[in-house]
Amino acid sequence: MSTSQREEIISNEKIIAPLSRRKFLGYAGAATGLMAGLAACSKNNSPSVDTGVDLLSGDFGILNYAYALEQLEAAFYIKVIASPYTGITADETARLTEIRDHEIAHREFFKNALGAKAIVALEVDFSTITFTSRDSVLGTAKAFEDLGVSAYNGAGRLITDPAYLVLAGKIVSVEARHAAYIRDLISNGSFADNTVLDVNGLEKSRTPVQVLAIAQTYIKTKINASNLPTS
After folding, report:
1. 223-224 vs 53-54, strand pairing mode
2. Which candidate, 185, 182, 184, places its Cα nearest to that of 174?
3. Cβ(147)–Cβ(217) under 8 Å?
4. pTM over 0.85
5. 9 with 164: CB under 8 angstroms?
6. From CA 88, how far away is CA 212, in angstroms rounded?
7. pLDDT category of residue 192 using cuts at 50, 70 and 90
8. CA 77 – CA 168 distance, rounded (Å)
9. What is the pLDDT confidence band of residue 50, given thresholds at 50, 70 and 90?
10. What is the rounded distance in angstroms from the CA atom of residue 163 to the CA atom of residue 58?
11. Cβ pair 134, 187 in contact under 8 A
């Protein structure tokens, strides 16, 4: 990764191609025509394999991985505020609006930082969420926030550039604040229970494979994480 690319990403903290023409096939004789026909038949019968949106490799892959998760969270909270659940209080509206704005800011940070290397906007699926229900919304928010924190914790060791690691640390600390607030809305005092902390008082972590297996439930767009670093 070049110095200029690194500087571009750090600076952001302050915040179907046209089809090619069909090849012309010239038939010089019956034999040539037969061979061309067989080749075309073979090509047309070959199934196309959709490998999904490639997150890329190295640090850019990890940044795209985080970008995908921030897209999901931003889309969720945008929907929550656009269609508030029944009985939502003024304080809850204010705090959830702040969380929405944070997630949008995180999403746009990664999008701008990645530039041409950013993955496409993902299509989400929230059909399993009842947005008029407080329990459904807050339960999903809790799941998303806990997942996000564990995702950043698990991805930290895969980042090679110390500057990116610092930025990831700043974002995960905000996500942890969100998680604590949502958890206490559901059950006061549950902000740091043993479902998220281990016996040493350390936050639990998940690998990208584990995180995406959970997140993909809410993302229609197929994601290809095969090129992400694993160690």
Report:
1. parallel
2. 182
3. no
4. no
5. yes
6. 30
7. confident
8. 21
9. confident
10. 14
11. no
Cα–Cα distance for residue pair 22/67, rounded to 1 Å:
37
End-to-end CA separation in angstroms for the chain: 18
Half-sphere exposure at residue 61, Cβ-oriented, CA atoms within 13 angstroms: 19
Q: Could you tell me which CATH number the domain at 53-224 has? A: 1.20.1260.10
Are 64 and 52 in contact by the 8 Å Cβ rule? The answer is: no
Query: Tokens 């690998």 belong to which residue?
Result: 207
